[in-house]
Write a structure and sequence with these properties.
With 278 residues, the chain is α/β, with parallel strands linked by helices. The protein has a single domain, classed as Metal-dependent hydrolases (TIM Barrel). It has 9 helices and 8 strands. An 8-stranded parallel β-sheet has the order 1-2-3-4-5-6-7-8. Helix 2 packs parallel to helix 3 and helix 8 crosses helix 9. It is globular and about 45 Å long. The N and C termini lie far apart (42 Å). Bound molecules: zinc ion. Zinc ion binds next to loops.
């Protein structure tokens, strides 16, 4: 791990963007002032709405709280697949369901399947626990009529199979989509929404770039997944919502549209899927 890189400079502003997936607390913003600072920095370059995503119950409490501090912040709550076993802890399912029902919670996520960490970390939920938790979150999304926000790592076939088996909610978002063109086509055909992070800008992400070209405007989102996955050429530096325009401009070039078109299309999709009024 070399020395810490400094944050990327502010990008050229691109008005009207939504960061469809970030983690404000992991970016270091855990107080009302700190949240406002991060969102102000984003708004200064056109990112005027952010969805902050929880991976466990403590983060779900934070995300819900943060929506009270700043009108531009919305929440998504769930147990991350690697923490799926926490669903068995007394009271967790009940409290998560209550937080998910909050009007400022606009998605159930991030949930899904993560096979990458199996056998690499010893605190990771088993496949059985992950399938069960994923099914529980799918049911919750359907009960509440909210979109399901999926984390899929090395589990394409199993995620699609679980969605089929449990029955997909009306709106499904693949956060930080990382598949190839074939996987993208299968998701698009099922009506799913694909959200692209800074990984699509990486030099070696040729298959992902092919995938990003074929997603229709009304199934496309852009996100940071901050503080991770900072777009090229700032890979490895700390990411934050203000970096969305880098990825948005990259996607616009890739898809042969103007940056303004990309911004208004992804924002229309975000508002529709998350139910956020303009
Ligand atoms: Zn995330």
């Amino acid at each position: 791990m070399g020395k810490r890189k400094s944050p990327p400079p502010l990008p050229e502003p691109l008005p009207g963007l939504v960061d469809a997936h970030t983690h404000l607390d992991s970016c270091g913003a855990r107080t009302p002032d700190a949240v406002r600072e991060v969102v102000d920095r984003a708004a200064a370059v056109g990112v005027d709405t952010v969805v902050t995503v929880a991976c466990d119950l403590a983060e779900a409490r934070f995300a819900t709280e943060a929506t009270r501090w700043d009108d531009r912040v919305f929440a998504a709550v769930a147990l991350h697949p690697t923490s799926a076993h926490e669903l068995q802890t007394d009271g967790v399912a009940e409290e998560l369901a209550a937080l998910a029902a909050d009007p400022r919670c606009v998605a159930i996520g991030e949930t899904g399947l993560d096979w990458y960490w199996l056998g690499k970390r010893d605190d990771v939920a088993t496949p059985e626990q992950q399938h069960e938790s994923f099914g529980w979150h799918i049911d919750l999304a359907k009960q509440l009529g909210k979109p399901l926000m999926i984390h899929n790592r090395d589990a394409d076939e199993d995620v699609l199979a679980d969605l089929e088996r449990f029955g997909a909610p009306e709106a499904v978002i693949f956060h930080c989509f990382s598949g190839n063109a074939d996987m993208a086509r299968r998701c698009v055909d099922r009506g799913f929404v694909l959200s692209f992070s800074g990984t699509v800008t990486f030099g070696n992400a040729v298959e992902l770039q092919e995938a990003a070209k074929l997603v229709p405007d009304d199934q496309l989102l852009v996100e940071t997944d901050a503080p991770f996955l900072t777009p090229h050429p700032y890979r490895g530096a700390p990411n934050e919502s203000y970096c969305v325009p880098y990825t948005a401009r990259y996607l616009a070039d890739l898809r042969g549209v103007t940056a303004e078109h990309l911004a208004s299309a992804t924002t229309a999709t975000a508002r529709r899927v998350f139910g956020i009024p303009a």
